[in-house]
Each structure stands twice: as C-alpha cells, then as structure tokens.
Amino acid sequence: MYEFQVNYENLANAIIIQAVYDYRNSSYFQTRNAIKRFMRSDWFKILTTVDGELLIDKLEQERLAENE
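Above: the chain sequence. Below: its structure as tokens.
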C-alpha cells in the first residue's frame, strides 16, 4: 500500500508542476485560462491540498513582475 501512495503523490505532484511550468511559459491567453480552470477544478483539489486560487495569484504576480 505504501508504494502505491508514494507513486500517487509523485504523479499528482508531477501534474501540478507541469501545469505551473506550462502557465509560466505560455504566451497564449487561452492556455493560461485552461490552466486556471484546472487549478480551480475538483480534480486539482483531489490531487493536492494546495490552494488553487493562491497558486493562480502567485503565478499572476510573477507574470506582472516580469512585464514591468
């Protein structure tokens, strides 16, 4: 059972890390909006205890800081 849990957590973390990477590196508004929808979804809440809205806010702050 323990190995399954570790594998599940690794997969969940990889999905979220990829979403953050994609958000940071996308120049397309539609792509970023799709990622925001994911971060607000029930699936995201199943994958992690991270607050999706807080994560979106942090990513938006990064984006604004880069454009200054």
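Residues 2-25 form the longest helix (24 residues).
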